[in-house]
Amino acid sequence: MSPPTPTSQAAPRSSAASRQRASIVAWARDRYEDLELGSVREWLAQEPGRKACGYLPVYVPREVIHAAGMLPVGIHGGGSMEIIRGDAWYQSYICHLPRSVVELGLTGRLDCLSAMLFPSTCDVIRNLSGMWQILSPQTWVRYVDLPQVNDPERAVEFWTGELRHILSGLTALTGKVVDDEALWASIAVYNEMRALIEELYAVRRDEPWRVPSEELYLLLRAGEVVPVEEWLVRAREYLEASAADKNRPRDNARVVLTGAFCEQPPLGLIMTIERAGCYIVDDDLLLGNRMIRGPVAQGGDPLVALARALLHQHRTTSVLYEPDPTGKAREIPERVEAARADGVIFAAPSFCDPALLDRPMLRDGAEKAGIPCIAFKYAENTGQFQQFREQAGTFSDSIKLWVGTRAEQGRVERGRTGAGGEP
Amino acid sequence: MLLQKEMIAEHFQRLEDAPRSGEKVVYTFVPGNLTELIRSFGALPLLPEINALQSGMRGKSKAYIAEAEKAGHSADVCTYVKADIGMMMSGNIGPTGTRLPPPDLLLLSYTGCYTFMKWFELLREQYKCPTVFLQIPYQGDGTLLPEHREYVVKQLREDVIPALEAVTGRAYDEGRLRELLALSARAEDDLVAVLHSAKQKPSPIDSYFGGVYYIGPIFSAFRGTPEGVAYYEALREEVEERQALGIGPETPSGRLDDQRFRIVVEGPPNWTSFNEFWQMFSDEGAVVVASTYTKVGGTYDFGFRHDPGDPLGTMADYCGGCYTNHNLPGRIDMLVDYVKQYAADGFLINSVKSCNSFSAGQLLILREVEKRTGIPGGFIESDLVDPRYFSAANIKNRLESYFQMLRERRRGQVAPGSDATAEVTP
Question: Which ipTM score applies to this complex?
Answer without folding.
Answer: 0.95
